[in-house]
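Exercise (ungraded).
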Amino acid sequence: MEEEIAETLARRALEAREKAHAPYSNYRVGAALLARSGRIYTGCNVENASYGLTVCAERVAIFKAVSEGEKDFTAIAVATSNGAPPCGACLQVMAEFVEDFSSFQVILVNAEGQWRTLTLRELYPHGFTSRFLWEEK
Ligand code: ZN
């Protein structure tokens, strides 16, 4: 992935983080998802007084994109205070829409704007799938 694209996604994730609704955890997260079409979809975490209804920033971005007709993604940037990776639920949702785990880039961004990139293969090597049996994606 080109450095410039990663920088753009990191910046967009940090901007999306500003919109986080996180009054309970105060853990603010922003995401910026790059579709193969070139469009970028952003998301922030949206918490609820009934905690279990909370949705992560990554899934907000992915669901926004899918609801706009996109199903092919190449990268996602996730901005948090500490540059943490996505939770397991979000990795599984990414896996649904990623054909090649080794090429899908997950850009981890901290609040200072520093970032590093891992692949979905590195973060989630054995995601659930009903499509293939005994064959890695
Ligand atoms: Zn998550």
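Further reading is listed at the end of the chapter. For now, observe: Residues 3-17 form the longest helix (15 residues). The CA atoms of residues 91 and 134 lie 20 Å apart.
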